[in-house]
Amino acid sequence: MVVGLAAREAGAQDPRLVSRLDKPTEAAVTAIVDSARAAKLPTAPLVDKALEGAAAGSDGPRIVGAVRNLAARMATAKHVLGSRATADEIKAAAGSMDFGVTARDLARLHTAAGTRSLTMPLAVLTDLLGRGVALATATNLVDQLTRAGIKDSELSLFQRDVRVDIEHGADPAVAATTRGHGLLLKHSRSPARPAE
Amino acid sequence: MSGGSDAAIVARVLDGDVEAFALLVARYRDRYARYAYHMLGNREDAEEALQDAFTRAYRSLARCEDPERFAAWLFRILINRCRTAGARRGRRARTFVADEVAVLEAAEDHPADRAAWREEIGRALAQLRVEQREAFLMKYVEELGYDEMSRVTGVGVSALKMRVMRACERLRGLLTEVQNA
Amino acid sequence: MRDGDNESIEQVADELRGTVPVSAGFDARVMRAVRAMPRHVRRVSFWSRLTTPRTLVVTPWSWGLVAASVLVLAGLGVVQLSEALHAAAGPAATALFSKASKPATQRVQFVLVAPDAKKVAVVGDFNGWDASHAAYQAKHRGGGVWSVTAPIPVGHHRYSFVVDDSLWVADPTAPRAPDNDFGLPNSAIVVEADK
Q1: Which member of B142, B161, C40, C44 has the lowest number of beta carbons within 10 Å of its beta carbon?
Q2: B168: domain range?
Q3: C-alpha to C-alpha distance for B128 and B149, rounded to whole angstroms
Q4: At A164, which helix (H) or strand (E)?
Q5: Does B103 lie in the same domain as B85?
Q6: Nearest Cα residue to C58 out of A46, A42, A8, A18
């Protein structure tokens, strides 16, 4: 197996793809990965997506479609977030786009973030969308929280509180905006708040 | 029951008697066809998901931990197949199902006749979030208890009750509007 | 939790409970597909289960080969080292690359309450979504509580629990991640480095 791999060309097959996908699917996925690498996009998420599809028992075309979609979303994310975006930010951004976040939404969030990482805000945004908060409400809210400089650890707690509220019967949008405003209020009172 | 208990038939299949599997197919196809049809909204997708579920069940039959509960185990496979099928169509279908106005305008007559009523129900169901639709169908159509639903979906009972409640609220709202139109 | 006005819902349910007949030939189609598959034979030996290509599993021993092959490729300069690391990510492989920069990991605990489960595993983009990976098998702690603590690279990840090798369950306590690609539930986790 080692010899076989060594004989292949540059940027070629990931052995996990070879062992878990049929030939045509593996070839198609590898081609997408190669293009992504050339475009300086993170390639590990693409391989992971293919492995997820294999684990889920999906058919080849479905897997290829998902990998291709992810590559396209990551390309958009990278374009919006810029060359200094980390792989995690690109991954998280691509995930949020799966729930309908647009390039424009990302651009706004990018501006709001300044120099902080967008990974956590994007993960929280994705979660809110996944729990049924409408796109406009969720993006506005996360935009505000990000702009206010709410730390990742507090965003994580915010997500947890909203989840628990929803589990207790709250309407998702109401829970999110209520908790969000509470967090903003608390932050604006804090003496340590950085100057705008 | 012809063929004996599920566990007995599973044992036969695992011993190499392929044809015995047909007994399980015949036993469960109608019940689960109903679930798949209401989840996915059309016959072709439903049958594809159901067929897929049966073949996967056959393939991994040795991993069925409790053959006495084959039905629940098969149902779980079907739930997953329906989710996968639904997700595949999700992007295409989304713009249609999200539009409540379209539902109201499409109800041309007062749905006194059965076929139109069924169609309205179908449309209303399609507007539920997937997890709510699943929970509603399991509770009210497949008539599972919450404990069974929890076992089969891996979701907690209170969350399931919430989903069923939300589904009922939404359905009531959508169908009242249609009837009053 | 009451459903409120039940009558209208009962009417709806009544309508939906009607039989939905499958098309003629459904049973035959299923059986045709089933007959084309390998016949079950009871008491499959451990070795043949390992070597039968039925399920696509990266078994623990093959991680070594993956790591070794990645080393060769890296040596040939054809693969970026950091990507090679990511591709071979896993406790065994990480140990081989002591010189190069390796992704920092944190030990993360995953907990699922699943009283009826016989087996719970964590799958995610940190272990190739492999439900049989040894380091990610949860142990039953009693009372339906399953947990496992495993090294997860710093950063953003998606994962899920697999119950009894058949049911994918999102982590109820974690942020949700999209499941549109394959329809199976996913959760997200952002692992932070030690400050």
Answers
A1: C44
A2: 99-181
A3: 18
A4: helix A152-167
A5: no
A6: A18
Cβ distance of A55 and C78 shorter than 8 Å:
no
Whether B64 and B70 have beta carbons less than 8 Å apart is answered as yes
Do B9 and B83 reside in the same domain of the chain?
Answer: yes
- ipTM of the shown complex: 0.81
Confidence check: pLDDT of B100 > 60:
no
- Best of B52, B84, B129 to disrupt the A interface (most A CBs within 10 Å) is B84
- Contact predicate B55/C38, CB 8 Å: no
Contacts of C31 in chain B (CB under 8 A): 18-19, 21-22, 25
The residue that leads in pLDDT, C94 or C173, is C173
Query: Any idea what the CATH number is for the domain that residue B177 is in?
Result: 1.10.10.10
Higher pLDDT, residue C43 or B40: B40
**Distance (Å, whole) CA B42 – CA A109:** 40
CB within 8 Å of C140: residues ≥ 6 apart: C117, C120, C146
Residues of B in contact with A132 (CB under 8 A): 129
Specify whether B109 is located in the same domain as B177: yes
Candidates B100, B54, B96; CA nearest to B75 is B54
Q: Please give the backbone phi and psi of residue C141, each rounded to the nearest 5 degrees, phi first.
A: -95, 0
Chain A interface test: which of C3, C50, C182 (most A C-beta within 10 Å)? C182
Mutation target vs B (from C2, C5, C6, C9; most B CBs, 10 A cutoff): C9
Q: Between chains, do C78 and A12 touch, taking CB under 8 Å as contact?
A: yes
The residue among B90, B123, B150 that closes a domain is B90
- Per-residue tokens: A98: 């799966």
**Per DSSP, which regions of chain A are E strands?**
none
Q: B65 and B29: one domain? A: yes
Asked whether the beta carbons of A66 and A49 are under 8 A apart, the reply is yes
* Interval B106-120 mean pLDDT: 63
Tokens 């190669």 — which residue? A34
pLDDT in tens, C150-163: 989 988 999 999 99
Contacts of C66 in chain A (CB under 8 A): 15-16
Distance CA C56, CA C54 (A): 7
Q: How many domains, in total, are found in chain B?
A: 2
Question: Where does chain C hold its CATH 2.60.40.10 domain(s)?
Answer: 105-191
CATH superfamily name and code, C105-191: Immunoglobulins (2.60.40.10)
Q: Give the bridge partners for C120, in sequence order.
A: C163
Say how many residues make up chain B: 181
Residues of C with Cβ-Cβ distance to A48 under 8 angstroms = 125, 128-129, 158
Alpha-carbon radius of gyration of chain A: 20
- Asked if A63 contacts A54 with a C-beta cutoff of 8 angstroms, the reply is yes
Distance CA A128, CA A133 (A): 6
Rounded distance between C-alpha atoms, residue C73 and residue A7, angstroms: 9
Q: At what angle do helices B70-97 and B6-14 cross, to 10 degrees?
A: 90
Q: What is the CA radius of gyration of chain C?
A: 22
